[in-house]
Design brief:
Length: about 110
């Protein structure tokens, strides 16, 4: 993947050069043409404001980087320009707490 960002500004935002996703700066319609890294891409689906789109083709198991940080793993094949969301991306965040369903309190709390 090129290290020089070339998203279709002002509609797509690249947060960091190593990212493999872009952020929609405006709502994008299915079938709309955008330029990503010099290639013209026809968006396969509508992308709401603030959602992620794939910068390149991604395969299941690929890690997704946003702002240079790992945010998740791809769970299904994703075409360039396709939206990345819960239907094809699993979070890699480590939970900081869980709820104890029996007591209704946080596990590890002092209550």
């Amino acid at each position: 993947m090129p290290t020089t960002p070339a998203p279709d500004a002002p509609r797509l935002l690249l947060m960091s050069p190593e990212d493999n996703c872009l952020i929609a700066r405006t709502p994008l319609a299915a079938g709309e043409r955008v330029t990503i890294d010099g290639a013209t891409i026809v968006l396969p689906e509508a992308v709401p404001l603030g959602y992620k789109v794939a910068r390149s083709a991604l395969r299941p198991g690929d890690k997704v980087l946003r702002y240079g940080a790992l945010i998740g793993s791809v769970t299904a094949a994703v075409a360039p320009g396709a939206m990345l969301h819960t239907h094809n991306l699993a979070s890699d965040y480590i939970p900081t707490y869980t709820l104890d369903s029996d007591a209704g309190s946080f596990i590890g709390s002092t209550h």
